[in-house]
Design goal:
Radius of gyration: 29 Å
Helix content: 55-70%
Number of strands: 0
Keywords: Membrane, Transmembrane, Transmembrane helix
Number of helices: 4
Oligomer: single chain
Transmembrane segments: 21-38, 98-120
Distance between the termini: 11 Å
Shape: elongated
Order of helices and strands: HHHH
Structural class: mainly alpha
């Protein structure tokens, strides 16, 4: 009986490039797609004039720091208004959509299950090829 040496399948350079581009595209879509979606939801009217620093609900130290930043050109009054508004305490600030959370958890669990099952299947194939159970010989 001749010893059969396992030769794993080889992937071509074109196949590796294709796989890399697919992964890069998916990362791009996820990161920038979510960012654009959130920005379009958060974009409001913006027609109203920004509130002056003196009328914003901040303490004197924060007011002084914001004034210094505006004078140095680091930020503008609209950005300060947005930063202060983002820090308001609201009931809906950290709202969780339970359906989307459950869908995300289910997707992750399904993905992990598929990966583990495929890995175990390939592991068994390699063990079966390397250690033939019928003859008891190692190859």
């Amino acid at each position: 009986m001749s010893a059969h040496i396992y030769e794993p399948p080889r992937q071509s350079a074109a196949g590796q490039l294709r796989d890399s581009l697919i992964i890069l595209g998916l990362v791009f879509v996820v990161l920038f797609g979510v960012t654009l979606l959130v920005q379009s939801d958060a974009a409001g009217g913006g027609d109203e004039a920004p509130t002056p620093l003196a009328e914003l609900p901040i303490n004197a130290t924060e007011r002084q720091q914001y004034e210094t930043m505006i004078e140095r050109g680091v930020t503008d009054l609209e950005a300060v208004n947005a930063a202060v508004a983002a820090n308001y305490e609201r009931d809906d600030k950290y709202e969780i959509n339970w359906l989307l959370l459950a869908l995300t958890v289910a997707s992750i669990l399904i993905y992990l299950t598929v990966v583990v099952r495929m890995s175990l299947k390939e592991y068994r194939e390699v063990v079966r090829e390397r250690f033939d159970t019928r003859t008891g010989e190692t190859r």
